[in-house]
């Protein structure tokens, strides 16, 4: 029960971290593609 509660609290934090990571990766690849376009 205690671990479930901890997991339940951590799920939003984990989701936010994943979303941030995904955005960062997309941004990085977008920059890379732009660089590739221009150079």
Judged by helices, strands and strand pairing, the structural class is: mainly alpha
The count of β-strands is: 0
What profile does the largest beta sheet have?
none
Strand content: under 5%
Question: What series of H and E elements makes up the topology?
Answer: H
- Estimate percent helicity: over 70%
Distance between the termini: 56 Å
Question: What form results from the Cα inertia axes?
Answer: rod-shaped
Uncertain spans: none
Count of helical stretches: 1
Q: For the CA atoms, what is the radius of gyration? A: 17 Å
- What is the residue-mean pLDDT, rounded to a whole number? 82
Transmembrane segments: 6-29
Keywords: Membrane, Transmembrane, Transmembrane helix
């Amino acid at each position: 029960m205690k671990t479930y509660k901890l997991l339940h609290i951590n799920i939003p934090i984990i989701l936010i971290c994943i979303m941030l990571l995904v955005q960062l990766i997309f941004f990085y690849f977008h920059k890379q593609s732009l660089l590739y376009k221009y150079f």
